Amino acid sequence: MSKNGNYNLILQDDGNFVLYDHSGKALWSSGTNNLPIEKCIMQGDGNLVLYRDDGKAAWASDTRGKTDTNLIIQNDGNAVIYYNQNPEAIWATGPLVQRLNDHEGHWTPSRKMNNADSTPQPKPNFHR
């Protein structure tokens, strides 16, 4: 939950990992609904991963390789993984940004779509 209490990340019973605002509006999701997600782990290698009940990874932030990281839900509604050595943001949900999924339902970190724009745009390598 954000410090101001207005935003929260929830791993739902349907397997979707969702960022909600205080009114219950979904701001971002992993797109893993209807998958048997068992747990969400911020791993020691810096990667945030959703694991299925069979132990296979279903979604990841693709931020492995940075061992000193934290996932922070900010007061502006952005969930961010920070690399603490610099500190620098290495992954973010981005407020009012809808992530696109590939044909298999996996989140694709290299693409994004602004809510006001219906044309997908390449995202800079912000998360690497």
What does this structure look like?
- The protein has 128 residues and is mostly beta strands.
- The protein has a single domain, classed as Bulb-type lectin domain (Agglutinin, subunit A, Orthogonal Prism).
- It has no helices and 12 strands.
- The chain has a 3-stranded antiparallel β-sheet with strand order 1-2-3, with no helix packed on it.
- Strand 10 (97-101) and strand 11 form a beta hairpin.
- The protein starts with 6 loop residues before the first strand and ends in a 6-residue tail after the last strand.
Brief overview, please?
The protein has 128 residues and is mainly beta. The protein has strands spanning 7-11, 17-21, 26-29, 37-42, 48-52, 57-60, 69-73, 79-83, 88-92, 97-101, 107-114, 121-122.
What structural keywords apply?
Agglutinin, subunit A; disordered C terminus; 3-stranded antiparallel beta sheet; mainly beta; about 130 residues; flat
